[in-house]
Design goal:
- The protein is of the alpha/beta class.
- It is 53% helix and 10% strand.
- Strands 2-3-4-1-5 form a 5-stranded parallel sheet.
- It is elongated, with a radius of gyration of 28 Å.
Length: 264
Amino acid sequence: MEMETNERTAPVNHQPDQNTISLDLMSRMKMHGMAEAFRESLAGTTAQSMTPDSFLSMLLSREWDYRAQAAVARMTKNASFRYKAYLEEVDYAANRGLDRNQMERLATLDFVRKGGNLFITGSSGTGKSFLACALGHEACKKGIRTLYANAAKLLGALKVAKVRNNLDTEMKKVERCQLLILDDLFLVPLDPKERAILLEIIEDRHERKSIIITSQYPHTSWYDMVGDPTVADAILDRIIHSAHTIELSGESMRKIKAKKSCKN
């Protein structure tokens, strides 16, 4: 007969430990940067080598960085850029009339903070859209709400919105951005409805918000492209006096890149 024993099996503790609880709370409060840093500290010896104050400071810094990066990613996505273009990638070696000093001054985005404008003109392929998107990405990095739009598509969509009686709603999406990039403006002449909408956009932004306009035509030709001298006067008077200008020239960048690819 087996001997009875008074030993009892210790109860299993199914309660989560304090670290698990902390991580769960961070996740619920959407403090993802802090949670990631905390997990890393549990896997290493970082926490043991820091004072409580410095450890807390590190967690808060990681959360701040995470939120800042998430905000930039969100603003960049909402901007709907045509190109993933960055100022670090701008080619100054190509002979197209691009001045590095001017670009570096524009890259500070002081003109945007002051409600100024920028015209980038030049023939097809000289890199107008790329430069505009690069400045737009820089604006997002600095917390400036930006919207990129092909001019013809935007004006066409706003015409449709007007027919459907929801123009005000669509215009508010444009008005909310501090920097508006109108790409390939005047690729085709404006019709009367587009002229009125463009004037409304520019009137709303006058001396308060900025526009970067890219066009194959120099601004001296925009009177003809607008199609109505009175409206053209109103449009240009509101944007030209506070505008910087980049006039690109030379061979198409796409053609230059194609030649380099063939040589390689």
